[in-house]
Amino acid sequence: MATANRAPVTLLTGFLGSGKTTLLNRLVRQPSFADCVVIVNEFGEIGLDNLLIEHVEESMRILNNGCICCTVRGDLVDTLVDLAQRRAQGMLSFSRAVIETTGLADPAPILHSLTVDPSLTPDWVLESVVTTVDAVNGNATLSAHSQAARQVGVADLLVVTKTDLTDGATAVRLRTRLAAINPQAEIASPTDNDLARRLSETSLAAAWRPIHGAHHQHTHEHDTNGLIAHSVVFDEPVDEAAFLDWVDLLAAMKGENLLRVKGIVAVASDPSRPRIIQAVQHVVHPVTVMARWPSEDRRTRIVFIVQGIDPSVIDRTFKRYGVGSKSSAATA
């Protein structure tokens, strides 16, 4: 299948009971998701979620008896390859895919497969990562389960569910905590009328949203389960080769704790066309070259979501590589 015809993939994740299947039901009723293929992973031998999804049977794939991030990851790859082949042969017709993970999944290995597996990249492209968070139990879940915090940390869009079952103060505290864990993610409600549209706009858009307070170094005290969101801004264009070498080095040395890197980069050799850089753990995604800057702000802006990495290590190695100058940083 030609690269131009790659089908976008939405990865839908969130902890157990956070409302993923309910949100998926809303999405597949939207016109822009009407012709999507749905892949559901359930942890256990008996699948139930597929019975709750209002979707045509021939466009549904169920991966049972394991977590999609480990024991059935090979099945996910095989399923996507099979779907792409059937689409190319005219046996199936769909324009996009939604993968709903089990609530126990660490999304990082799935992102790895979608972005670097040579059997998938010709036919599929990751569009966005959506994480559901239960407004009633969200704070307790984030405190008790580090996996929930990791799901929040990799999201492009956070959908806070069950807000009608809790009070306003609890919801505000949860949103504050979510913003501390992942300040670049949008936060939405499942009832937002434009939710389907926002899903297709968040993947790269998050890279150039303003980094609030990035001009001043500061630390906010929030319970983030050891996750740190560290933002770096460079006023001057960077040396592209040195920058990419530095990102590769950081991923190689600290990849296990490098949950996500996302940014828009001004390069000295081609300042009118910014680069979009994204990395997940040990994997640095291929650089995307944009045709133009999305706004008048042409500074390099990078957000690192890390766990167990001192942000000063990032800043120190950045300077050692001589990548840029006139920088400012913010840590949350």
Automatic annotation (TrEMBL):
Residues 227-322 form the CobW C-terminal domain. Gene3D superfamilies: CobW-like, C-terminal domain (3.30.1220.10), P-loop containing nucleotide triphosphate hydrolases (3.40.50.300). Keywords: Chaperone, Hydrolase, Nucleotide-binding. Pfam families: cobW, CobW_C. GO terms for molecular function: hydrolase activity; nucleotide binding. The keyword Hydrolase applies. It comes from the Bacteria. GO terms for cellular component: cytoplasm. Signal peptide: none annotated. It catalyses: GTP + H2O = GDP + phosphate + H(+). The keyword Transport does not apply. CDD domains: CobW-like (cd03112). Belongs to the SIMIBI class G3E GTPase family. ZNG1 subfamily. PANTHER family: COBW DOMAIN-CONTAINING PROTEIN, COBW-RELATED. Zinc chaperone that directly transfers zinc cofactor to target proteins, thereby activating them. Zinc is transferred from the CXCC motif in the GTPase domain to the zinc binding site in target proteins in a process requiring GTP hydrolysis. This is CobW C-terminal domain-containing protein. It comes from Bradyrhizobium betae.
